[in-house]
Amino acid sequence: MKRLTSKKIYAQFTILFTILVCIIYGIFLLTGKSFIWWGDGLAQHYPILVKFYDLLHHGFPGSLFGWSWALGLGADKLTTFSYYVTGDPFAYLIAVFPKNRIEMGYNLLVILRLFCSGLAFLIFSRQFKFKPQSQLLGSLAYTFTGYSLFVSVRHPFFLLPMILFPLLAYGIERIFRGKSWLPLALAVAVTLASNFYFAYILAIGSFAYAAMRYARSWIDHQPMPLFKTLWQLVKPVVTGFLLSAILFIPSVIAMMQSTRVNSTAQFANGYWFYPVNFYLSVPSSIITSPGRAGFWLSMGISTLTFLGIVYVLSHYRRYLALSVTLTLILVGSLSPVVAAIMNGGSTPSDRWILLGCLFFSLALMIFVDHFSTLTRYDYRVMVGAAIILVGLVWVANGFIFDNPIHDSVSYGLLFALIGVLALRQQLGLSSKMAWGTVWAIFGLNLISNGYGFFSPNVSPDGINSELLTRGLATAYQKKYLDGADKYVREQSGFYRSSTGKYYDYKANASTNVGLNNGTHDIMSYYSVQNKWLGQFSNAVQNTQANMNKPINQLDGRTSLSNLLGVKYLFIRSNQLGTQTLPYGYHKVKSVKDKPTRLYGNGVGTTILKSNNALPLAYLQTSILSQTQFNHLNGVDREQAMTYGALTTGSRKNVKTVDYHSQAQTLDYTTSVNTTRVLDSLQKVVQNRQDDADQKSADHQGTGVKTDSTMATTSTWLSTPEDLDKELATANNEKLKKSSAGKALLSENRVQLETAVRENQQIVKNNLKANEDGLHELTSSNTGQRLSYRLTLSKPELTKNTELYLQLDGIKVQPRTMTDSVTNTKNKNTFNNTPYPFDSQLQTWRKATSVTGDGAYNVQVKSKHNLTGYNQLGSTNLSDYEPKTSQLLNLGYSKTARKTVDITFEGVQGISYKSAKIIAVPMNKSYSQRMQQLKKQKLTQLSVHNDVVTGTATSDQATILTTSIPYSKGWQLTVDGHPAKTSRVNVGFVGAHLPAGTHKIKLTYQTPGLKLGELLTLGGMIIFVSAGLFQLWRRRRSE
């Protein structure tokens, strides 16, 4: 076959890509879905793109820089969006779409990124002497690899490194071939500007490629001078860094001042090896649809790619450098330590596997180039590798094939491909027919993997069910607050707002939709967040805070909301009178529900307003002692900040207030609900009777669920003595008098009595542990979680207070595979269900899905209030941080509250060193204190994006106190003269002011931006000069 011209091969790639993308992604036209994921797609990616669209159309490029009050409490636009759009060249193309077609633009840009990833690999592959067929196959395999399919609908901007890595390798390859270093400099610049995270991963990948390329030069006996090669590589790296500095330097500074730097999570989330279920899921995820193995190991490579890897490794002496690289990638993908290192020393995420895609496709091209020279040894190796793969799938599934039926297509195509290659001569296939068959199998394989991932017919509960219907994201963005945001936008002055807890039926907000509604929503959900906000939330024990959402909704706490100026609160209309609300917030308006398919709140929205919300900037005449503040709990720290400011700056002539807590710790008794715990033979009888009745009802087709005594009568025990009394009424003698009881208990009696005694001991130990307060939540030997009730000794003390549950010294007993097996065994014993070896084996199969990662949630109910907290498991790769204490807001109420009910799920048990119920008075005294602070506000306050001005007046020295998140980018002038800023209240901008009347001006500039501008200018001069010099030298040589 004649060598194709460059134009022809690019045209052929474009045609083939178009055909494949229409077939694979055409499923979305049939299902009516967009590429927007209901998770981060709706919460982060789409709202950010909408905001970016506005920035591009209003004052671009200056609109991309500086401060924005729309980003939660306020943040830098450039550095906050750097992880998503500002460094992504494709994101800027959204500007060409009409505003009412942004969602369509979102979808089309995903396809464009996919195309460019394949195009970039094709450009890279053209430097080698691979056959055109090999280049096309390698480029398409690279484009439609499982990783790309997965991120295209989960995190589309993660396609960018799939474009950049081939271009970086292309630039490195040119240097090793003695050509210009300018393409590498440009690729480095785009990489560094795109995203610091991508830059880190791609830097490692580029180093690996350069090392492999250098090693190959020695293997080929054509060694390149080390220092000369290094110099040729340093030049483009330095120039690329300079070109990107305007974006890269501010982004790095922001990252070093982010919540992620202060994370308390262990390296690799504490893993030295992945959980067993990860390793068991790997074989099934290699050549099938992506997204199964977890920890971001998205393989889903084509069967041709798989055989290419096998071919290269089986000829490792000939391809030593590539074989070593492939081995390191494949082995490294199984290690959480390697994953954590590749992930910046944090969580064990295998996102870096994207680097492997290039080397995998290199192996594919080598393999395809040698189709005509394959030997019997090669066929034996390929058949053996395929059998081993299928065998591993069988073993990993517990010696059965319970994979989706669709997977058999991938394995069938694998053996079909080997058969065609091995038997093409025996079958009498011409070269053209053989190639056509290979192409057909290859195309079907890519389509099959795509359909396996996207089609609802193949995977009803798969990714398609998680994607939004077309138009839904746009409608949701507009109708999120049912139009209530319009009223708030019309109000004068600077204010902030928040949604109430469970506004959208979630315990906390997880969305940036408020970014675009103009209400200064305090919620922000970004990967890079101000570390001082994180430290503020940690100081006051904000239970809703995490690395990506350091503020959230402030857990609905009254004083925190007022301190941060939350003037308006959006709640579901049916929460009035049924859900406790922060003190002092009153109704000002209600609007009807504007449903958005299944994403509306269903009942309409009510706006609440607080007259106690503090202004953005005010004066504190007193300061707090840092020593005293450090010894306070989260509740008292919150209250103390309403008496004085905590400052890191000058305290000259400002009095120190001695804070006296008004909070009360209330006495209570703990009782446990043992209703569903099978700790007596009487309960076992009732359980078996109910089970038999239910089976009878199911058999008769009535479908009626029986109501048991156990389900309708609650058994609450407070002491071990209560347990003894309860058991005395359900003793063996009583049951012996019942013929029904005797019959139901006649089989398996020894094991049954042993299991009952185990539960009795569990309950007894639990009651003893909780005698002097709540210390332990536990489960029965069937895995049934016990529920608990805290009964207040003096409920009248809860009137007119905001109530809190303080949990300290949290330790967790994760649910292990052994626990799962034991629970199932005991359930069968109690139900008198046969438990043969086959059933036991099936139990172990199911148990392998138990990660034991310690994830759990606790739900706390009190009068008119539902709250709780959740601990993300160590398998979570974004926000995992082990929690050792929690402060839960049980809400404000005028009336007394007598009980607090606690339930949990996800783990075997949880222990607490202490559990306290704290009541904080909310009354006129509190309101008067807040009103006094409001009187001390800056007058003539003017708030713009980068400038805040006002007049401060006081007859004594004060602390300028703001709720502006602290950043060194804020510069202060007092009466036109520069003045020092300090941190106040842990995380906000403040300053010391002398007595008198002063003109205050705060001005913001992105830290590192000026330096970045200068370096980028220098980089442009170097780049252009080098380009002109190379052009002059080339013309001179001609």
UniProtKB/TrEMBL annotation:
Transmembrane parts of this sequence: 9-30, 105-124, 144-169, 181-210, 230-255, 267-287, 293-313, 320-341, 353-372, 379-399, 405-423, 435-454, 1014-1032
Family annotation (PANTHER family): INTEGRAL MEMBRANE PROTEIN, INTEGRAL MEMBRANE PROTEIN-RELATED
Listed InterPro entries: Uncharacterised_YfhO
Name used for this protein in its record: Glycosyltransferase
Domain of life assignment: Bacteria
Location of the region described as Disordered in the Swiss-Prot/TrEMBL record: 687-710
Record bears the keyword Transferase: yes
GO terms for MF: transferase activity
Keywords carried by this UniProt record: Membrane, Transferase, Transmembrane, Transmembrane helix
Basic and acidic residues bias locations: 688-698
